[in-house]
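Q: For a teaching session next week I want to show students how multiple molecules come together into a single three-dimensional assembly. I've collected the sequence lines for a complex. Could you give me the predicted structure tokens for the whole thing so I can convert them for display?
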Amino acid sequence: MSLGQITIIGVGLIGGSLGWSLKKHGSCDLVVGYGRTQESLQQALSMGVIDRAETDLAKAVQTADVVILAVPLQAMESLLVRMRPFLPDSCLLTDVGSVKVGVVDAVAKVFGEIPPTLVPAHPIAGLEKSGVTAARSDLFEEQRVILTPLPETSRVALSQITELWESVGAEVECMSVDDHDHALAMTSHFPHLLAFLYMQLMGRQGGESLLPYAGSGFRDFSRIAGGHARMWRDISLDNRESLLPLLTAYKNQLDDLFDALDNQQGDDLESLFEQARDLRNQYRG
Amino acid sequence: MSLGQITIIGVGLIGGSLGWSLKKHGSCDLVVGYGRTQESLQQALSMGVIDRAETDLAKAVQTADVVILAVPLQAMESLLVRMRPFLPDSCLLTDVGSVKVGVVDAVAKVFGEIPPTLVPAHPIAGLEKSGVTAARSDLFEEQRVILTPLPETSRVALSQITELWESVGAEVECMSVDDHDHALAMTSHFPHLLAFLYMQLMGRQGGESLLPYAGSGFRDFSRIAGGHARMWRDISLDNRESLLPLLTAYKNQLDDLFDALDNQQGDDLESLFEQARDLRNQYRG
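A: Of course. Below is the structure for the complete assembly, covering every listed component.
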């Protein structure tokens, strides 16, 4: 299988790792990397992550067979506007965003419809680091990638994007945009919000003077609050429709916990903690 | 230095590790372990964690120079009631509980006053495992131990318990009971509650069907929800006076976050996340 020319828009950790993996596995003829500046593109070239670097968006996409958007969520719409005039009709269009509703809305707005070539994708891979220097050619091996094809998506497009991810070792699964965004809100985006709010509270309750008394529980629980602030702003805004009801539900649980503690309802507390623990202990990862 | 006979009430992970460490460092003449049943005591004897096993509380404490309570928080008061008639007046009394207000209240209730021999202590060491089989003779090396002496505590008692912990490699620090309980509520107890509530929410929003989509962020954030339900019930109840105001403050923050998300106030979100990240990134541990 060869997917022809693949153009990656944004050669950071995910875009870079994907280009590198595709090259390693011979999945395509050519990997073109598009970026705003030469610096990270030259780094990507010297690492062997891409075959060709482009800072001209038209040149980057006009001969592409697949275009992969690997830029921050809030940057996707303006890039789609700028590339639209140069994008071949048959070119497959996919992305690697953590929220799917936003990119689908952006494509619908820019194209006036959902083109049959659109196959939104989300590789569930580590996001702690960033930038092409953190890229790895094995980042997606045995990692889950969720595709969220739309009713308008063609079977051929879906099949080819599936092959693309499988060629780099990923395990591909399909679900609806809504199911994806709800699942990721619950498993990833919402805990990030909770961790950020927790650190905000610590800042108000003593701040860094408390850190010497923090142990391994704190270390692990709060690690995700060290994440990229702008990226999490984008994810939160894009996925707010899934996140808002979770915030409300969690607030109600806080009320119930407050009452149970205040009334010293030990059995209720223990039962809550047991159920939480039982679900947590089913996690294998 | 020798502290004479040290009796450890409850030979689990912490009590067992402390006995083992004291023996290894020659900090005392004799380590007696008290437990309700022979089984874990025999295990402790065979591991060399204690010198002598006792299931008779009177025999365990009547010749002791130091008694260390290393039992669950909710068990302390009844043990104090039972040992009180046999405890020598000069015997130092300390503990290893995660909350200090409860043990101080229990001692005051059982003794009718705070004796000058009381030196509450809290070694901040890993609690993920439990039982004497998880004990280690180096568990406290370079680990922080907080002592919370009372106004009634004698200088000699404080000095000897300080020496006890320093002899096993711990870094000893003193603070008030209230300061300790507030600091630990913020750095340890409150995040446990948040993690338990998060798993409760996941249980209501899809439960185990969501776990396949959970990555390393989930893994670390929710790890502490796998903790010992009864122990965390005890800690929560004992430290409720510090925890309840944190629950209220956090709920207010959830309200503010809800509004910021609902109104798409991207700058406010990014600023919140940045401040949270900056504090988190000051953590060294």
